[in-house]
Amino acid sequence: MVHLQFRRFAGCPVCNLHLRSVVRRHDEILAASIREVVIFHSNQEELRPHVKGLPFAVVADPEKKLYVRFGVESGVLSLLDPRAWISILRGVVRSLCEVLLRRSPWPSLKVHGGRFGLPADFLIGSDGRVLASKYGSHAYDQWSVDELLALADQRRSPNSQHVTQGFSSYSVKAN
Q1: Which of 1-15, 80-94, 116-130, 142-156 has the lowest mean pLDDT?
Q2: Residue 171: what pLDDT?
Q3: Structural domains of the chain, with CATH
Q4: How crowded is the C-beta side of 125, counted as CA atoms within 13 Å?
Q5: What pLDDT, in 10s, does the model give residues 94-130?
Q6: Backbone angles phi, psi at 86, to 5 degrees
Q7: Nearest to 113 by CA among 14, 47, 42
Q8: Whole-angstrom Cα distance, residue 67 to residue 39?
């Protein structure tokens, strides 16, 4: 299976906070036969310094073609939703510490594709069908690693039915 994640821009403190949780548990994700693929709406040059050392595929989609194809949206309220505030604060503090310790570059002040993207997650089966999806309603609204592992486990059980939200017949090739 492939866990296809749509994130915001290169160096996004909120996205980095989430991705670090995925990195910490990447061995568990691999053991569950899940391959991570993360998409950002930044170009390769902006993205490269922010994704060094990530143990999974990262895709630059500056034209947001994949975002459009999967119906992933942006919204000004993504940062104003109170449910995201603690994660935004944690992400900003963590990113600031990383920058000050020279472990990470500053995020660009001029963000390609905007700052108001919403996250989205898709679990894609080996046959290319979307098995499950989640469209975030605020900046930190995505599957946790526990939720991802539980979904994958449910989809592997012989009695499970394919569950999609908004993509009943949509498929992609998961190479």
Answers
A1: 80-94
A2: 36
A3: 2-156 (3.40.30.10)
A4: 19
A5: 777 676 767 776 666 666 666 678 899 999 999 999 9
A6: -65, -45
A7: 42
A8: 9
